[in-house]
Design goal:
Distance between the termini: 36 Å
Number of strands: 12
CATH architecture of the largest domain: 3-Layer(aba) Sandwich
Strand order of the largest sheet: 1-4-5-12
CATH topology of the largest domain: Pyrimidine Nucleoside Phosphorylase, Chain A, domain 2
Structural class: alpha/beta
Radius of gyration: 21 Å
Shape: globular
Order of helices and strands: HHHHEHEHHEHHEHEHHHHHEEHEEEHEE
Number of helices: 17
CATH class of the largest domain: Alpha Beta
C-alpha cells in the first residue's frame, strides 16, 4: 500500500477502504506521507468526494492515529460540539449541567481563530485556569467533578493536526468530508458514548444557510454513528450573537449571570437546555429529549450546575471561590463606550462576522495561530434582531484597551446592524433536528 495508489483511488472515485484510510492516517501522523501527497489527497477529496463508508473510514482512521481514551465511570460519557459562532458560550453552561445530571463530560475544546471565539480562550479569562492537563490529571478531574474542559494534547488525532495545516494553505478547508473527519476524530478520541452537535447557520457562522448546515449535520451524524458513537445534531440560528456579549471575559460574565440566576440570558439558556436534553436522552439519563430538557433546566435553576462549574474551575487551577466572587476575579477593559444607532428604529439584521472581527481588532481574538489574546475586550449589551435602537439607545457597548482602539472599531460595529422603521420577529433559535 502506498500514498499514490490511495490518492488515485479517491481521484477516480473508487471507495476508500478501512485499511487504506488507516494507512494514510498513520502516514500523516508519522511522516510517511509527505506534504505534497497530503495536499493531493485533500484536493482529491474536495473535488471528488468520499462515499458515506469512506467518510466513516477516514474519521475512524484519524481518530486511531493517536491516543483514544477509555473510561470506567458510573455514568455515561457525553460531550457536545459546536461548529462555532459569535457569543456562543454554551459549553461553559452545558458541561457542568450534564455533570450535575449524572453524566461525565471530558470536553476537548479549541481556541478561537478568525471571527469566532474559542471555548479555551473564554475559560483562560479566569485567573489560573489551566487547559493543558496531562492525561492522568484530565481523568482525575473528570472523575472527581464530572467534567473538565481542556485542550487536545499532541497525542490526540495527530493525523488531523497535520492534515488541517495542509488544508489551511491549499484551499481545501471547506470540504464537508474533511470537516467531518476533522471534527469527529478529535471528539471521538475522548472515548465518548454519545455526542450532541450544535451546527450553526447564519451571518455569524461558517455555514450561512440552513441547507449548508443541514448537509454538514447529516454528514457528521452519519459518520459519528458509523464510527460507533450515538449522535444527534441541532441546527441552530447564528444570524445574531447567541449571548448579548462577544469577548472572552464578557462571555464568562454572561455564563456566570445565567448559572447563578443573576440575569438569565434566555437564548443562551434555551440552546443549552435543548442540547442538554438531547445529550441526556442519548446517554440514557432521560426518557426522551423533553425529559432531558427538564432535568437540565432543573440543575441550572437550583444552582447545582453552578456548583459543578466552580468545582471544575478549582480543579483546573482557578480560584476556589470563583462562583461566589466572579465579579472580582475577571479582568475588565479600561475603556467602555456606547455605540448608538444613527436613527431610531428596529434592528432588522446583524452581520455577525463583522461583530466577530471587531472583537478580533480590539485584541480579543486571533488573526493567525499564536496571536496573543486580551481577555478583557469585546462587545456587551449587543442589541438583538427586533430590538428598538436610537442614538440614545445603544447598539452595543465597546470594551477596549484604549480610546484609539475604540475609535478604530466604532464605525464597523455600527455598520454591522441594519436598522429599519418596522418591528421584525426574532428568528427561531432551533431550526431543525438531525438524527
Amino acid at each position: 500500500m502506498d500514498a499514490r495508489r490511495i490518492i488515485a483511488a479517491v481521484r477516480d472515485r473508487r471507495a476508500l477502504s478501512d485499511a487504506e484510510a488507516l494507512w494514510f492516517a498513520r502516514g500523516l501522523a508519522d511522516g510517511t506521507v509527505n506534504d505534497a501527497q497530503a495536499a493531493a489527497f485533500a484536493m482529491a477529496v474536495l473535488c471528488r468526494g468520499l462515499t458515506g463508508a469512506g467518510r466513516v473510514a477516514l474519521t475512524r482512521a484519524m481518530r486511531d492515529s493517536g491516543e483514544v481514551m477509555a473510561w470506567d465511570l458510573p455514568g455515561p460519557v457525553l460531550d457536545k460540539h459546536s461548529t462555532g459562532g459569535i457569543g456562543d458560550c454554551t459549553s461553559l453552561l452545558l458541561a457542568p449541567a450534564l455533570a450535575a445530571c449524572g453524566a461525565y463530560v471530558p470536553m476537548v475544546s479549541g481556541r478561537g481563530l478568525g471571527h469566532t471565539g474559542g471555548t479555551l480562550d473564554k475559560l483562560e479569562a479566569i485567573p489560573g485556569y489551566r487547559t493543558g492537563l496531562a492525561p492522568d490529571e484530565f481523568r482525575r478531574v473528570v472523575a472527581q467533578t464530572g467534567c473538565a474542559i481542556v485542550a487536545a494534547s499532541d497525542r490526540v488525532a495527530p493525523a488531523d493536526r497535520r492534515l488541517y495545516a495542509i488544508r489551511d494553505v491549499t484551499s481545501t478547508v471547506e470540504s464537508i468530508d474533511l470537516i467531518t473527519a476533522s471534527i469527529l476524530s478529535k471528539k471521538l478520541a475522548a472515548g465518548l458514548e454519545a455526542l450532541v452537535l450544535d451546527v450553526k447557520c447564519g451571518s455569524g457562522a461558517f455555514m450561512k444557510t440552513p441547507e449548508d448546515a443541514g448537509a454538514l449535520a447529516r454528514a457528521l451524524v452519519a459518520a459519528a454513528q458509523g464510527a460507533g458513537c450515538m449522535t444527534r445534531a441541532l441546527i441552530t440560528d447564528m444570524s445574531q450573537p447567541l449571548a448579548a456579549a462577544a469577548g472572552n471575559a464578557l462571555e464568562v460574565i454572561e455564563v456566570m449571570e445565567t448559572l447563578t440566576g443573576t440575569s438569565v440570558n434566555h437564548a443562551l439558556w434555551d440552546v443549552t437546555v435543548a442540547l442538554g436534553g438531547e445529550a441526556l436522552a442519548l446517554g440514557g439519563l432521560a426518557a426522551d429529549a423533553a425529559d432531558g430538557e427538564e432535568k437540565v433546566a432543573a440543575v441550572l435553576r437550583s444552582g447545582r450546575a453552578a456548583e459543578v462549574f466552580g468545582a471544575m474551575v478549582a480543579a483546573q487551577g482557578g480560584p476556589t471561590d470563583f462562583v461566589e466572587r466572579w465579579p472580582d476575579r475577571l479582568p475588565s477593559a479600561p475603556v467602555v463606550r456606547e455605540v448608538g444607532a444613527e436613527r431610531r428604529g428596529y434592528v432588522t439584521a446583524i452581520d455577525g462576522f463583522a461583530l466577530g472581527m471587531a472583537v478580533v481588532d480590539l485584541g480579543g481574538g486571533r488573526r493567525v495561530q499564536g496571536d496573543r489574546v486580551n481577555p478583557s475586550v469585546g462587545l456587551s449589551e449587543i442589541a438583538g434582531i427586533g430590538e428598538e435602537v436610537a442614538p440614545d439607545l445603544p447598539l452595543a457597548l465597546i470594551h477596549a484597551p484604549s480610546e484609539a482602539a475604540a475609535d478604530a472599531v466604532e464605525a464597523a460595529v455600527r455598520a454591522a446592524f441594519a436598522v429599519g422603521p418596522d418591528e421584525v420577529d426574532d428568528p427561531p433559535l432551533i431550526i431543525a433536528r438531525v438524527g
